[in-house]
Amino acid sequence: MNENTMADRVAALFDNDGQKFNIESGAVDLENLLVFLGTTVRSSTGFADDPVRYEFRDGSAIVIAGGAWDVEGDEPYSWAGA
Q1: Residue 11: strand, helix, or coil
Q2: Which of 23, 57, 58, 67 is most buried, with most CB under 10 Å away?
Q3: pLDDT tens digits for 48-80?
Q4: Distance of alpha carbon 20 from alpha carbon 43, whole angstroms
Q5: Would residue 53 count as lying in a domain?
Q6: pTM more than 0.85
């Protein structure tokens, strides 16, 4: 994990827990934070249950799929921890 990327910094805010979508007793929501930070949002095919990729300006990304998320792995829409 490269702690210098935006994706890694945001993941650390959520304790690197891919099941955790809220911090501060629900006051901060992961997806809202990602949009607020100016990520580019893309779905792999556009269907509702497909992975969604939130890319930061530094090229790092967080991928949300189903009820979980992770920092992007080596391939687009993959998870680093998978």
Answers
A1: helix
A2: 23
A3: 678 999 999 999 999 999 889 999 999 999 999
A4: 21
A5: yes
A6: yes
